[in-house]
Specification:
With about 55 residues, this protein is mostly helical. The radius of gyration is 21 Å and the shape is elongated.
């Protein structure tokens, strides 16, 4: 029983593990390298610089 479950799991997720690098790159491009993320990072930096300058 356990062997059968393991084989089913390996077959189902084999594609995920073989394409892991591509999936990570796609996730990074979609979440961290997006225009929205870059703008939020820039805005936060400007805000923090202004906030720290007031002290």
């Amino acid at each position: 029983m356990n062997e059968t479950i393991r084989q089913l799991y390996e077959r189902k997720y084999a594609r995920f593990f073989t394409n892991r690098a591509k999936l990570v790159q796609a996730f990074c491009a979609r979440k961290h390298n997006s225009a929205f993320s870059r703008e939020m990072s820039r805005s936060a930096e400007v805000y923090l610089q202004e906030f720290l300058a007031k002290e």
